[in-house]
Amino acid sequence: MGDAADRPGRDRMKCWMSNATAIGVTTLVLAWPMSAQAQTVPADLPSTEQALAAIDQDPTVLQARRAVQVATHSAAMRAAGPYEWTVGATGQRRRIDGSGSTTEWSAQIERPIRIGGKAALDHDIGEAGLRQARAELTIARQSAARLLADQWLDWLAARQSRARLQEQVGFAEASLKAVETRRKAGDASLLEVGVAQGDVAEAKRQASLAAAAEARAQASLRVRYPQLAQVAPTLSEPLALERTEGQWRERILAVSGKVRAAQEALRKAEATGARARADRLPDPTVGVFTASEAFRSERVVGLSLSIPLGGTYRAQAALEAAQQAEVARAGVDRETREIEVEVATQVAEAASSLERWRLAEQATAAAGDAARLTQRAYTLGEADLQTLLLVRRQSLDTINAAASARADALRARYRLLIDAQMLWELGAD
Asked: Domain 2-428: which topology?
């Protein structure tokens, strides 16, 4: 019995040492980028104040905050314990042959008592649940920040694409004027005028589609983030990542809400397992009672003690809790591996999207120059209309590709910064 009583204490010591080791490692990992946490918010994103106001009003974040409040009450409940005082009273009338009848009564108050370190284990379980809820709040805030950045960049990319396509409408109209001029001079046919008019209509159609996409993106932002001021800056030029994949991985693992939530779930499961093992030693119920008997001539005062006998149920509950801890431990490994894979994928995507944007910008510049030169050549009679329209369509395609590539490159970088809690002060909560 002494070994069973001491086991919860050893479990708590083991759990405390595990927590201390994790805290120490986290502190060392967090040390490397502290200067980066004060990084200036990019000019094409909302300010920290506006972004946090929008993020904290996101429904998923509000739900997670309510869950933290629930976990706070749950921790307080566990610390207080499930046992309450029980008050009881009985009354009876006894008839004694030859002596008549007498009224007797008794009253008692009793309460179970947690022994074997169970109160401390219940406190540990509640605190682990509270820390897990806070980690899940971090997850919700990071997810909301990702969504805000994605929708903001989608809006800016659609706006930029619409502006460039509107410029192409002007180029198409200039080409139509050139065809009409040549038609008057007898150098172009009526068919070429019709083809040029169709090109103008197509350019306007694409510009209208871009305007509709911009309106949809702006409406989505307005409805989801009504408190966010929609002042549209220009998309900035994407930058290369300053750190290696290993550094990003260490940083993100150290601050990841998913990893912390899994770790706290493990600590909670370990404490729950220790609690189940400790519960194999049942809690006694102690009380005091008083009674009046025998024509009120006898007064009784006493103590009561009752102890349930543990059996198969408690033994199986301890085994189940031990297996639940193993499940939670596997969950930590799974979350860690998934984040490692995700970081490697994001770093690779950031590098490749940056390269795609550079190539797209080069293609856009080259296609734009070719379109202008071809239009001038057509005006001078040195190129035919089909060549001009082909070059213009290529220019339109490169414009759309460049706008999309720019947004993708920025999105990949900003996602890493958000996951690393190096943007919008997400780690300050």
From this structure: Outer membrane efflux proteins (OEP) (1.20.1600)
